[in-house]
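Worked example 3. Consider a protein that binds flavin mononucleotide.
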Amino acid sequence: MNNSLFFTPAKLGPLQLRNRSIRAAAFEGMTPGHEVSDALISYHTALAQGGVGMTTIAYASVNKGGLSFPHQLYMRKEIKASLQKLTAAVHKEGAAVSIQLGHGGNMANRTVTGIRPVAASGGINWYGPTFPRSMVTHDIESLKKDFVQAVLLAAESGFDAVEIHAGHGYLISQFLSPYTNKRKDLYGGKFENRKRLMTEILQSVREAMPEKMALLVKMNCWDGFEGGITREEGILTAKEIAACGADAVVVSGGFVSRAPMYVMRGKMPVDIMAYFIKEAWKKMFVSWFGESLIPAIPFHEGFFMEAAKSIQNSLSIPVVLVGGMNSIETINKAMEEGFQFIAMARALIHNTNFINDLRNETINRSECTICNYCVAKMYSGQIACHLNEKNLPAALQEKIAAMQMNGHPALKAKSAAI
Ligand SMILES: Cc1cc2nc3c(=O)[nH]c(=O)nc-3n(C[C@H](O)[C@H](O)[C@H](O)COP(=O)(O)O)c2cc1C
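Given these inputs, the predicted complex is written out as structure tokens:
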């Protein structure tokens, strides 16, 4: 039995977690028709059985207009009973459960929402492609109400925590970033103004939510490219989040429409992504331009640790460390550095029992190869690790074999380039 501090209970705001592990929000794709499926419940139950302190349901939109995918959840009272079933199943296995709430902004998909996407500023987002319109005061006021309603629904559905998504180039992050925020009003220009939407949302939800519920916020330490938020603004973002009464900040980085691999590092297997896409034109576009639109960034374990450390040093609330926390060695290093909570996505996508396996010393490192097959698959269906997939069509098996012959460039890298 491993006796690392990581496996001991800890307080996260009002919550007592049985250990310091959190399943990071990683879009499951298990909500076809925007409904909670049995697969989603089974998956998070398995994570709870596998020992995580808290699991997170990913990427739920606060309203229909913020959806990116047809298989994504949006918060509405009609799904309360199924959310209650989900939270009860996780609680039965001794874990806490959180839900990530956000809005896609210029990453929302009109064919899914039926309405034109809204964003900090209009223009074109080539990554969609989408042609969002700039939000007016009325949109902002109604968005704040939607965040509050979503948090209240999460509370009534039995969630222990909510995680507001303020990173990765989605709507709140689009306001924070000078790359996407070209506004001339009180919500644009200097950082003081760009952070205003985030502040108002966080203040509204903190005031409305029950005290027994924890508030986490996922944010960017850096957008991952020059012209986005600076590292200094990353620190200011974290301080603002703390000042709004959050219980913890999840330090991440990257921008889906500009530096997507900064979020998770490694290489996107674009052939596999194209394989799963149904629309012929998109399939072709991804095959031809995917590599240049989604440039690889080398992976190394604990890739946000340095950035998260400088943020932790200027905060009184805990930082949740995420990003390649794939071995007990790196986890223990983080514990020695004073981090209290560790979140993981791919290690737990590969193996829902990863936490128990580390504690029981059956393994000391995840067998996830950072091939990012799970990410490629997520856009069109349910996430899965290719190492666990069974009965795959021959054409897909060939593509997986080719991907492995590439030799996992992510793992070969000695250090992060940026
Ligand atoms: C398949 C997949 C889906 C993801 N979806 C989300 C998401 O919905 N929301 C989010 O904040 N981050 C998302 N992420 C990023 C992860 O939460 C995490 O920050 C990142 O993968 C680095 O952690 P890891 O090295 O443990 O995978 C996703 C990552 C993966 C691999």
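Take a moment to read the result before moving on. The longest strand covers residues 54-61. The mean pLDDT is 94.
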